[in-house]
Amino acid sequence: MFSQINLKLFSSIVMFATFFSVASTLAQETRKTPRPLKCVYFTPSDCESNPDRAERLMRVMKYVQEFYRSEMNRNGFGPMTFELEEEAPGKLKLYEVRAPKPMREYGRESAWAVRAVVEDALKTSGIDVNKEVVVIFQQGLLWKDGVAEEVASFVGAGAPSHGTAWFYDDPMLDPENLASQEPGGYYHRPCSIGEFNTHYIGGIAHELGHALTLPHDCETDVEREQFGFALMGAGNHTMGRELRGEGKGAFLTYSEALRLSNVPAISGSTPQSRQMDVKLLELQAERVGKKAVTLSGKISTPRPVLGLIAYNDRDARASDYDAKTWCVRPDASGAFKLELTEVAPEPSELRLCVVRDIDSQLLFRVSYCPDGSPTEFSPIQSAMALQKISSLFSGKDVVALNALASGEFASNEELRTLCRQLADVLSTQGAPQLTSPQDVEDANEQFDLTRARFIQEKVGWSRLTRGAHFDGELLQVAGRGFASGLSAHAPSALETRLNRRWKRFHFSYGLQSGSRGSVVFVVYGDGRELFRSGVIRDQELREQTLDVSKVDVLRLTTEDGGDANTSDHSLWIEPILTR
Question: What would the pLDDT profile of 49-69 be if each residue is shown by its tens digit?
């Protein structure tokens, strides 16, 4: 007989099976050509390759492969998993790469340097790592007196078309050892050989998840009691421990499985690129219990989507390992309703992700505090107002923006002003008139660099855009929208002449809302560094004022935060020079 808690879980599973039958069918029907992982063995110049690597790592990858297969099947998507290349029966095909430097030269922050070496080496085999999911086994553990030091990177990152994961290899790494309670392992402290394998094989499954586009999340309390720990949460530290009688292991949450179902390396489909054509039109939140919140809303989409995922991520932990998830499939009109349970009354971030047939995209993101107060959902309402304004702005609808300013937002000074500013920008015919700050007449007490002519203009991706994001959307940082600003994806460099005719430079800076990159903002005056921010990863808006009275050439730059420049959508907001 089911207990009460298991009955609730059983009901949820039945509901998911009903809501996502279309998703499951589509995922299975789009399976076409196997896209096996490319497994690389990376050996630093001062190391020797482990002699049994091909057989042992085949067992490791088969174990992880079967974990994905069984969990995708349990979630209702059928036995979907990634494919492997075999050199011979029982032997994993490994692309051997001999590195030019010793192990210590490939430290914790050297993942992309390792990838660059691998990319060059695999070209000789006709393999483009930018079109494959590549896993790199490294000699990354340094043992001394029974203590293992983690030297190399152990991470993963990916897009729908390709991904990379970096793992460690070690002679002890073998799923056959997962049940072992014998001493001899080490993971930040002495542990059993079985626990050593739990952490590192679990880590392989987890980082491979990142290479297959999965973000972090965690399980609900109900799921933890039934299944254990989510793979993309703490599951990388629990995988296989049930074999030692030490508690429940790891599993794939429904949201993880849903996102995996459209990844080419899992589905066998061909990677595609399509404009993000799903829009969130409405979103309301309502408290329905002490720890329960209902989200209801509507999306517009030209084709059916596989589902929506709501992430509720508590701020108490800096990372998103504690983001609980809930899923729903909108009806034919795009309407949806979803109950979020186990919502803690503390500062959190709410994210809505849409899962399409070809990818998963962030649809909405806002910080709020679901504490039961009368204003707990005000940030959601404000964010939706900005989303409405942004949609009209990107659609160049001047009439509707002015209507909002005089109607719905008439009593909100900030939103009313923003609508009018954006309408004025759109009303300006033709390309904006650009001016060098050195040519601005003295009678003008201030000048907005949004309209500055730059003598150097370089961006890391796409193009420099003024008064809008590169995709035509509204400039947004920290829940606010702006008509003034420069969007310059890192690494970027913008250089203009002041000719010592200005006294102060005031600006705000941050990442475009929804960006998940990391950026450093730097300002130079005649080659001398005037300002350098720390690494910006959050969604906060910061401001700065600089003395530029003796500056001839002003240079604004953004650098990636040390983890490559993916999603480094950096914004210079209201960059104003004053006399």
Answer: 999 999 999 999 999 999 999
